[in-house]
Amino acid sequence: MASSSSLLEPPFHFTNNFSPTPKPHLLHTNFSPTQKSHTLTLTVCNAAINPPPPPPPEQPLPEKVPAVLPEVALEAASATRDRRKIVRVAWEKLVRWSRSLRLKANTDVLERTNKVVVLGGGSFGTAMASHVAGRKAQMEVNMLVRDPQICQSINEKHFNGKYFPDHKLPDNVIATTDAKTAFMGADYCLHAVPVQFSSSFLEGVADYVEPGLPFISLSKGLELNTLRMMSQIIPQTLKNSRQPFVALSGPSFALELMNKLPTAMVVASKDKKLANAVQQLLASRNLRISTTSDVTGVEIAGALKNVLAIAAGIVEGLDLGNNSMAALVAQGCSEIRWLSTKMGAKSTTISGLSGTGDIMLTCFVSLSRNRTVGVRLGSGETLDDILCSMNQVAEGVSTAGAVIALAQKYNVKMPVLTAVARIIDNELTPQKAVYELMNLPQVEEV
């Protein structure tokens, strides 16, 4: 008898003196006339042992086979071609429209601008100084900074060693600590000083500011004691109610501006001509600038989103999951809309770049300073330890209290942002705040 292992290897040979008659379709018999024992050798085919599977039974056709199937297929193909054509035509129209706008756009603003002064040597001020300087090599971009070391680093090495040690600045960026030198002959001023320090800073340079010098505010927040926005702080501090003012806002991190990544921002001004001029000055291949007249909406959204970002960071630090994150940010967006529209802003501004766009960036991306504060608060660190370890200002910390005072002034309920203010004032723990927010009475959304 052959071993079991040999039975697995075709062809199979075995010899018996007696064998039953094999089935013709499985076995083939070989008789050898020379063998005395009349040994019967049976060769078993591999196909006999491992026959191929039987063919699948024919599937019955559906009871009702559409008689117009080819016609339907042709119609579907035609519809696909039509859809693609519609999309292609729509895109070509957008491209032509964009080209026509670029051709019509005036470039005289950039051509006649010879000097821009940037107030502040922080990360965003440096990024905008670099961007503007790159628009025109013959333009002088003068940064007014307080730190002599930063001033020296920019002038001698063309680097802001504190904030961007790996990014070389254009050669036409010059730093100074002298206000008179910085403002002399300036065509535009980019204000990048934190809101809480803006009044004292502007008081010190007011004597050198020309009354017609346009201020482009990059600062976001509310002054803690007065609840003023930058559109109020700048003209009042400079004692010139007609000081030209523009607010620049939108989802933008300084690092990505320095890396020349695509960015979109909004210029807000009551003066449409001024807004268009600033648009021409700043817009480039990697920076898209839109314009609006809703200064209040842009400033309020820019201030409140920093407070909401702290709340989002707390949710992350407590590891509460995506459901709670989405619910909290949605509620915060509603609160920002409620307050801003009560103050006269347009709801469309809150749903645009300077509103929802900036909120999403600040709440969900780890580069956000305010979100980082929230994450560390949720992880159990104290606010004092967090602030002492940071080399940049998180505007939401100082703005939170002002936001609640403003909400009371306009009689708007803002539970999420109020909770952040109480956490910052050390009157509520993050865990307790979450519990209280989850147990608020249900109300109809407006």
From TrEMBL:
Known pathway: Phospholipid metabolism; Membrane lipid metabolism; glycerophospholipid metabolism; Lipid metabolism
Single GO MF descriptor: glycerol-3-phosphate dehydrogenase (NAD+) activity
Entry-linked InterPro entries: 6-PGluconate_DH-like_C_sf (IPR008927), 6PGD_dom2 (IPR013328), G3P_DH_NAD-dep (IPR006168), G3P_DH_NAD-dep_C (IPR006109), G3P_DH_NAD-dep_N (IPR011128), NAD(P)-bd_dom_sf (IPR036291)
EC annotation from Swiss-Prot or TrEMBL: 1.1.1.8
GO BP annotations listed: carbohydrate metabolic process; glycerol-3-phosphate catabolic process; phospholipid biosynthetic process
Chief site of localization: plastid
Location in or out of the cell: Plastid, Chloroplast
Swiss-Prot/TrEMBL keywords: Chloroplast, Lipid biosynthesis, Lipid metabolism, NAD, Oxidoreductase, Phospholipid biosynthesis, Phospholipid metabolism, Plastid, Transit peptide
Catalytic activity: sn-glycerol 3-phosphate + NAD(+) = dihydroxyacetone phosphate + NADH + H(+)
Family: Belongs to the NAD-dependent glycerol-3-phosphate dehydrogenase family.
Protein name: Glycerol-3-phosphate dehydrogenase [NAD(+)]
Organism of derivation: Artemisia annua (Sweet wormwood)
